[in-house]
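Let us practice reading a record.
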Amino acid sequence: MKTSIINTIAGLDQLGKKAVRFGIVVVFLWIGGLKFFTYEADGVVPFVANSPVMSFFYNHPTEYKKHINKEGELIAANHQWHIENNTYGFSVGLGYFPGNTGHTGCTL
């Protein structure tokens, strides 16, 4: 009886490995899924607008501070400004790069 309990406990390591893998998959899918929504694009606006290498993607990069949407907040006028400024177009464009070109973007 004692050995069967020990064998059962020893076999739980496989369950633990599967649980950890499942957790990692859920997190990666969650983060990856956010890339397709304007919520994520609003978060990277300051980084792109202040970048000397990437700010040319926006029509008016210096005016973004007036139109920031706080996290979880949606102000229609600010959202419309971001559409006109090409904020969301830029973030959608990033999704079209093949896998290895992402490393190039990281260096920018």
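A brief commentary: The two ends are 62 Å apart (CA to CA).
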